[in-house]
Design brief:
The complex is a heterodimer.
Chain A: E1 2-8, E2 11-17, H1 23-30, E3 49-52, E4 55-58, E5 71-73, H2 86-93, H3 103-116, H4 122-129, H5 140-151
Parallel strand pairs in A: 1-5
Antiparallel strand pairs in A: 1-2, 3-4, 3-5
Helix pairs in contact in A: 2-5
Chain B: E1 7-10, H1 14-24, E2 28-31, H2 37-42, E3 50-53, E4 63-65, E5 69-73, H3 78-82, H4 85-90, H5 92-98, H6 104-107, H7 112-118, H8 124-131, E6 135-140, E7 143-148, H9 149-152, E8 153-155, E9 158-159, E10 166-173, E11 179-186, E12 196-205, E13 208-217, E14 224-225, H10 227-233, H11 240-252, H12 264-285
Parallel strand pairs in B: 1-3, 2-3
Antiparallel strand pairs in B: 4-5, 5-10, 6-7, 6-10, 8-9, 11-12, 12-13, 13-14
Helix pairs in contact in B: 10-11, 11-12
The chains are: A alpha+beta, B alpha+beta.
């Protein structure tokens, strides 16, 4: 076991972890932050995407032990039920989710996309979302929500 | 779908990293971005006794412009390469290829050294190293050496690297003046591995091709150069007949596999089509007469 100290959504945590513990399981199991979803566990579906020092990453492809000293942001950092963030509000307004399983990863991915890319066209939005699988919506409403979030940026 | 247990070691220097690898005698794997390694661990396709984490190695994440080349540190992330002004200015074909590498979350973490060492036959970076005649820099307890990309890439997931060696960087020569480029890729979804991808550079002097380079990914057990097509083009001006002949030669240069994503025939067909598009784009960008 190795002791790590990191911040998650602004709160500092110190925990002893086994080296093979994935960041996704550390967030969900160790810290009880179950907003981050685990889909494929091999970096394909994007459901577990979080921000590490501001950059979106797959939490199923990182070991918690690697992240000593890092700042992690999860979907819980965005907003609350009664006070949605503008991005969450855009998803709500456009009905950009049905079952909601992919939504935390979508939101964290789009947070990073909005900071890094112009997303000027639907094609660019779709390219940006191509690493996040949604089996319900057919993506149309998600693209519409990203368009709204882009315009409000 | 959880990785098997392993011993975790953090390397604080290149010397320490290769000493750990040497001590482990082939039982260790280097953990860089982990975007290929960790899925293989999660699937338990690999069970290394030791992971040597190099993410905290200082001084290995950089893109440095030199007189005739761009030097890239092994720990440079794909996103840094994608957005580098030096790469956009001097190696625009590499810039174009990077946009096809997986997805932002992968590009934020995956490293240049990791992608070269993993050597997926359908990946863009090994193919770009081959196209651009890059040199790979390698460290071991015995010192430093360099190896040409064409000698480094041996086969599918296979490179000329000993168990105690670590890739520390890659040197890409800048494109010569009057060089046009083209990059074309077809994949099932944006960011997926290429069913086939073709990169081209054409250096044009006095209206004819002084040097042609064509590299192909996804259509053989490793990235390949279409040497016969390159030889056909040299000294010529690109016309429709020559274009057809070069595409035929490119198709003949590959030996694709059939898998659940595409048949061998379709991949070979794509190589011809994409070579034609990339050559035409390169010829145009080189400022050659239409």
């Amino acid at each position: 076991m190795t002791t790590i100290r990191l911040t998650v959504n602004g709160t500092t945590h110190e925990r002893a972890v086994e080296p093979r513990l994935l960041l996704a399981d550390f967030l969900r199991g160790t810290l009880g932050l179950t907003g981050t979803h685990v889909g494929c566990e091999h970096g394909v579906c994007g459901a577990c995407t979080v921000l590490v020092d501001g950059d979106s990453m797959r939490s199923c492809l990182l070991f918690a032990v690697q992240l000593d000293g890092c700042a992690i942001e999860t979907v819980e950092s965005l907003g609350t039920l009664n006070d949605l963030s503008p991005l969450q509000e855009a998803f709500r307004e456009h009905h950009a989710l049905q079952c909601g399983f992919c939504t935390p990863g979508m939101l964290m991915t789009v947070t990073d996309l909005l900071r890094k890319y112009p997303l000027a066209t639907d094609e660019q939005i779709r390219e940006g979302l191509s690493g996040n699988l949604c089996r319900c919506t057919g993506y149309e409403h998600i693209v519409a929500a990203v368009r709204t979030a882009r315009d409000a940026r | 779908m959880k990785p098997p247990p392993f011993e975790y070691r953090v390397a604080e220097s290149v010397e320490a990293a290769v000493a750990m690898l040497a001590e482990a005698g082939g039982e260790a794997k280097v953990l860089a971005g982990g975007q290929s390694l960790v899925p293989m661990l999660n699937f338990r396709l690999l069970r290394p006794a030791i992971l040597v984490d190099i993410n905290r190695l200082p001084g290995l994440a950089f893109i440095k412009e030199e007189r005739g080349a761009i030097r890239v540190g092994a720990l440079t992330r794909h996103y840094q390469l994608e957005t580098s002004p030096a790469i956009a200015a001097h190696l625009p074909v590499l810039r174009a290829a990077m946009a096809h590498v997986a997805h932002l979350a992968i590009r934020n973490r995956g490293t240049i050294g990791g992608s070269l060492t993993h050597a997926d036959p359908a990946a863009e970076l090994p193919m770009m190293a081959l196209l651009l005649d890059a040199t790979i820099q390698v460290a071991s307890p015995r010192g430093r050496r360099t190896v040409a990309a064409r000698d480094f890439l041996l086969g599918a997931l296979s490179v000329a690297l000993e168990a105690d060696e670590l890739v520390t960087g890659v040197v890409f020569p800048k494109l010569p003046p009057s060089t046009g480029w083209g990059f074309e890729e077809v994949s099932r979804r944006h960011g997926d591995f290429a069913l086939a991808a073709v990169g081209v550079t054409l250096t044009v002097a006095d209206g004819t091709i002084a040097e042609a380079r064509i590299a192909i990914a996804g259509a053989d057990e490793r990235a390949v150069r279409a040497s016969e097509a390159e030889a056909l083009l040299k000294g010529q001006a690109l016309d429709p007949k020559l274009l057809d002949a070069a595409c035929d030669a490119a198709r003949a240069a590959v030996n694709p596999n059939t898998d659940l994503h595409a048949s061998a025939d379709y991949r070979r067909h794509l190589v011809g089509v994409l070579t034609g598009k990339a050559l035409s784009a390169a010829w145009k960008r080189a400022g050659a007469p239409a």
